[in-house]
Amino acid sequence: MYPLLNAFIGVRLAGAWPVGHSCCVTIVGVHGIGKYHYFEEAGRSPQGAAEVMRAKWNGYLHKGLGTKKAYAGESYVAEVAYYAQHLRKGEPQPPKKMDPASKMVFADWTKQLNGRVATVAGESLTGLAHRMAEWLLGRLGENAVRFAEDFCPEVATYLAGGEPRTRSRNAVAETIRRRKPSVVIAHSLGSVVTYETFWAHPDLRTDLLITLGSPLGMRNVVFERLAPVPVNGKGSRPPGVKRWVNVADKDDLAAIPPGLRPYFQGVDQDISCNIDWLDFHTVRNYLGCGVLTDLLKPHLS
């Protein structure tokens, strides 16, 4: 009765969109650390913050897919699940001024970067944080210190449990439940939130989970504090995830260790990349580096 409409539906179901158009399936992103400013800039609207981030992710992904035409608003990511407003406690502080929980994360994290570090007898947590901040600045520069100022407090707040953790997971779950994505791309701390969200909400499903720059395997900081707790030194792919691929830059200070397969049953693949040793963790570089092409092309027109 409606031959043109029927033909259109048939083309879409066959996955034959013209090149450069929208996705054939739904992709949801989950952001990482340091994204609270989007909330303030959007008038304290999580929806507004999520929409600004979605537009940026689409631009980054367009570049990473290697299309020859300039980005013109193509939509690859349907939505970025936003949760940063649940973890923020004021402006980022330098390590020596962080709260005790953040200093503990900072100390445990930097010990993994510098295996020679030792706690001096009688040294305070503030003293250790100050000493390690100086080492971090001298060894890796200001970018690493700025990264720590976002990473340590947000990780500490999330893993402390209580409402921030629950609300963050619920925000991600609501987006995944509503969008029903075939692909979930989770960056940085967002990979931790997403992992726990799938376990906490067993009704959620996705065909492919891609983790980028993930700290899920970071011992003494994240791994042992996951929910559910790893059993016999191993975590597991959530039942609602059909396939899990992990991508990590070799210089990413959050992805320690970069490979997750030794620590989680059900990780199908660890992919190493080299995005930028100075700008080692941004989702811009991960989405734009091209390593996701083979993973996403079956899901994109």
Give the proportion of residues in helices.
40-55%
Overall residue-averaged pLDDT value: 84
Order of helices and strands: HEHHEHHHHEHEEEEEHH
Q: From the alpha carbons, calculate the radius of gyration and give it in angstroms.
A: 20 Å
Continuous helix count = 10
Query: Which structural class is indicated by helix and strand composition?
Result: alpha/beta
Largest sheet: 6 strands, parallel
Low-confidence regions: 1-22
Q: Predict the CATH topology of the largest domain.
A: Rossmann fold
The first-level CATH class of the largest domain is given as Alpha Beta
* Strand segment count: 8
Going across the biggest sheet, name each strand in turn: 2-1-3-4-6-8
Distance between the termini: 28 Å
CATH architecture of the largest domain: 3-Layer(aba) Sandwich
Domain count: the total is 2
Q: State the shape.
A: globular
- β-sheet strand percentage: 5-15%
Written account of the structure:
With 301 residues, this protein is α/β, with parallel strands linked by helices. The protein folds into 2 domains: 175 residues, Rossmann fold (3-Layer(aba) Sandwich); 65 residues, no CATH class. Helices cover 41% and strands 12% of the residues. The chain is built from 10 helices and 8 strands. The strands form 2 sheets. A 6-stranded parallel sheet has the order 2-1-3-4-6-8. A two-stranded parallel sheet has the order 5-7. β3, α8 and β4 form a beta-alpha-beta unit. α4 packs across α5, α4 packs across α6 and α7 crosses α8. The protein is globular, with a radius of gyration of 20 Å. The two termini are 28 Å apart.
